[in-house]
Amino acid sequence: MVNAGKPSGACELCRKRRIKCDEAKPTCSYCLKRQLPCWFPKSQFEVAWRDQNQVASNAVQRRLNARDKASPDAERSSKEMTRPDTFNLPRVLPQDHDHYALTFLFNSYLLPSILSNHQAGFLGCVYPVWAQAAPSSPLRPAVNAVAQALLEAWSFLNPNAPHSLARSHYAQGIVAVRRQLQNAEDIDDDLLLATLLLDMYDGIRSFCGARPHEGPHVRGSAAMIENRRKLPVNSKTSQGTLLGVRSRIVGDALRKGEHVSLNVLTWTTSIQSSPRTPELDLEAINIEVANLQVSALGLKADSAGVATLGSELLNKANELDERLVAWAATLPEEWIPHCIMDSETLPRSIRDAGLYQDHCTVHKSIWTADALNIYCCSRIKIKLVTLACLEYVTQWVADSTRTNARVTLQDLADTVCASVPFYLGDRVEVRRIDDRSVEYPQPGNSATPDEHYVAAAAYGGMFLMKRLVELLKLGPHLRAGQQQWILGQMGRIKNIYLAKPA
């Protein structure tokens, strides 16, 4: 029977044996007398869930069985329910929330990032540092905060809710970071990773709460890098951490229109045999794109020397655009997306969920897709600066350049829209992260790679939402009806991930 009043505080052994427990801690009298291990729930939240879990799970299963019997596709649904999953997430959370949340984080988020060889991210560095971190390290509560927030989000619980278990870990992480900053002589990798993970936790809460992500921890990690004095950065973990901080700084600056210190560009000079990858080369260009955006804010019709400034910024914009085009021309062959032009070859469910202009693109991975969309968004920012500068140059130069810029803006927006099915497949509502029944576009109707199922579900919505927000800034430069289509896809992402204001 479901407990209708105050949840019982009995230990696990007394509860299972259905005997009265005096609830004496740390060991009740029954267990003490028989010298048995005595375990109590950690919180009232856990106590409440303990009594409700099985009943709720049975009720959900009954409703699913009833739906399958009433549906003409009952046989197919039944097979989907019994399909073994590689990354299995039970419908009921186990008692050891922290341990299970960590397993979920490592399997569903860290492992796909490591297997992808994604060079610009920091998640691949977390496990080796976390495994050796001291119990007092700020990295431990920071990892727990992210793990709990993600597990709650995928368990249909809002990590913004007051009873979220992730909140206490986040608070512990903040305290531990401050304590280590006060006591440490230098900035360790675990401290830098802790600040990045605390920022990731804020990002998860912002995404689930459908609000902008401010990113205060990114600025803190940048200051830590500048003050880092003694520790070398020649290990793979230290290099990955440094590059992860740089990636977050550049991404935030592009999104918010903020200036990036050129010192950030020189960080990699301290790395021995610094890797040259498309992601890092793109970041180096985007530092200058971010600063170009800030410089363009100085264009005012009544300011002195605005024509000269406009001409200088126009030349800089053209130079950066040429460098971005050259970057795209030198990409490895496996980075080039495959374009599916015939919409009739796509599953009907994908076409109904969201297909723009009857075609879509398929990429090597979710990370290469996002890098190419970042490239498109960077060129969009450059073209918008170009259009702003053209207001202050001679008319005969402006007309042809303005027309070319507008055409390019539309083509770039179309390219980002064409990637939506690769990110989301045919998802239109909440589904499990390990659901293999989701259909994704593939060339020649080939099978979807196993790693894409989890990687697209884990990262696809958050990656794509950032790029669609950038497209909305184009406003009148979008094609007719394109803005409404983009807004519809943003609403679809919110439905899939239950993102709503807290």
Structural summary, described in words:
By secondary structure, the protein is mainly α. It is built from 20 helices and two strands. A two-stranded antiparallel sheet has the order 1-2. α3 (44-70) packs antiparallel against α4 (74-82), α10 (216-227) packs across α11 and α16 (366-389) packs antiparallel against α17. The longest helix has 27 residues, at 44-70. The chain is globular and about 95 Å long. Mean pLDDT is 81; it is low at 43-56 and 71-94.
SS summary, helix count: 20
- What is the average per-residue confidence, as pLDDT, rounded to a whole number? 81
Q: Sketch the topology as an H/E string, one letter per element.
A: HHHHHHHHHHHHHHEHEHHHHH
Low-pLDDT windows of residues: 43-56, 71-94
* Biggest pleated sheet: 2 strands, antiparallel
Helix content: 55-70%
| Order of strands, widest sheet | 1-2
What is the tally of beta strands? 2
In whole angstroms, the N-to-C terminal distance is 32 Å
If you compute it from the alpha carbons, what radius of gyration comes out, rounded to the nearest whole angstrom? Answer: 26 Å
- Structural class per helix/strand content? mainly alpha
Q: What tags apply to this protein structure?
A:
mainly alpha; 61% helix; 502 residues; single chain
Write the layout of secondary structure elements.
Layout: H1 12-17, H2 29-34, H3 44-70, H4 74-82, H5 97-115, H6 126-132, H7 139-154, H8 166-183, H9 189-208, H10 216-227, H11 236-256, H12 263-266, H13 278-296, H14 306-329, E1 338-340, H15 348-354, E2 360-362, H16 366-389, H17 395-418, H18 420-424, H19 450-472, H20 482-496
Antiparallel strand pairs: 1-2
Helix pairs in contact: 3-4, 5-7, 5-19, 7-8, 7-9, 8-9, 9-10, 9-11, 10-11, 11-13, 13-14, 13-16, 14-16, 16-17, 16-19, 19-20
